[in-house]
Amino acid sequence: MMKVILDVDTGTDDAIAIMLALLSPELDVIGICSVNGNRGIEFTTENTLRVVEYLGAAQVPVHRGCVLPMVSTLSPGRRINIPYTGPEDPEDNVHGDYVDLPPATIKPAPGNAVSWLIDTLMESEGDITLVPVGPLTNIAMALRAEPAIAEKIKQIVLMGGGCREANITPSAEFNFWIDPEAAKIVFGSGCDITVVPLDATHAAAISIEDAKELRRMGTKASVMTADIIEHRWNGYKNWQPMDDINTVPVHDALAVCAVLNPQVLSPVVPVHADIDIGGGASDGQSIFDLDRRIKRAVPNVKVALGADRALFSKMLKEILGGNGS
Ligand code: BDR
Ligand code: CA
C-alpha cells in the first residue's frame, strides 16, 4: 500500500478527492490536513471531518492546519476577504460553505497540521506521498520550519496552477493565488513534484452523464459525488463553462487518480516552474518554462498538460461505485 497524506481545503472537489483516497485499496491515508482556502479553516476542517465520518473512516486523523496564507494578506489590497468565514457568498455556486452532510461528531486531532507533518515525515522511511489540493500553506510552513523534511518526502502530487488556463484572475489559478509564496517555496524545495494544473483538470472534465451513472451505482460515495458534480456544474456552466458545456472539472480528484495511475495524466513534461509573488496583475500566476527560455534553468517539476478523460471517469466509477460504501 502507498502511504499518502492529503492536504485539503474542503471544498466540493476536495470532498471527492478524500472519498477516492479513502476508498482506494492501494492507498493508506495516514492523515488529512486541512488548510484555509475555499473557505476559512473552521469550515474546511469541519467539511473534511464530515466526509471522513460519512465514509466511516474516523480512524484517519484530521489535522487542523494554517488559518492564513504565509504573507499575501499583509500587503493592503493584495488580498481581500481572506479567510472566508461566511456567510456564504451568494455568487459562489460552486463550493458552498459546508458540504451537504450532517455536522461532524468526530474532532480534529490535537495540535497543528504543520507540526504533525514535520514529525510524521521526519519519523518516516521516506515513503510518504503528499497530495496537496488546496493552497500550499501547510506544506511550505513545514518546509520552512524543518527543511530536512524535503528529503523525507517520496513525492508531491499537487493540484494547482495553469499553463494556459486561469480561474481566479486573468492569469492565476485559485490555490496558488491564495498563497503564492507557499507555492514558490514548494517549487523550490527540491522534492519530486507532479503538478496537476487547470489544463489537465479541464481536459478531464466530467460529464453530467457520468454523474447520472454514478448516481445509479447507488453507493454512499457515488451518490454524494453525483450530487457534487451536478452542484458544481450548475455553478460552472455560468461562471466558467467548459468547451463541452455538459462537463465540469473536478480538479482535486484528478490529483488522487494521478497518484493511483500516473497514466491518467498525459502528456507530462519536466519543466522549470516559478510563481509570480510580485503583487501585481499576474500575482500568483504559475510560470512553466515550456519553451526553455531560461537556458540554464533545471526542471523542478513535472507538469501535466492534459489528461485522459475516459480513464479518469472510469476510475471515479470503479473506486466510488465499487466498494459498496
Ligand atoms: C482549486 O481551487 C479550489 O477552489 C478547488 O478546490 C481546487 O483545489 C481549483 O483552482
Ligand atoms: Ca481544493
From TrEMBL:
Family matches, as Gene3D superfamilies: Ribonucleoside hydrolase-like (3.90.245.10)
A GO CC term assigned to this protein in UniProt: cytosol
Domain of life according to the entry: Bacteria
Pfam families associated with the record: IU_nuc_hydro
GO biological process, one term: purine nucleoside catabolic process
Keywords associated with the record: Glycosidase, Hydrolase
Ranges for domain Inosine/uridine-preferring nucleoside hydrolase: 4-313
Descriptive protein name: Inosine/uridine-preferring nucleoside hydrolase domain-containing protein
Species the sequence originates in: Hungatella hathewayi WAL-18680
High-level lineage: Bacteria, Bacillati, Bacillota, Clostridia, Lachnospirales
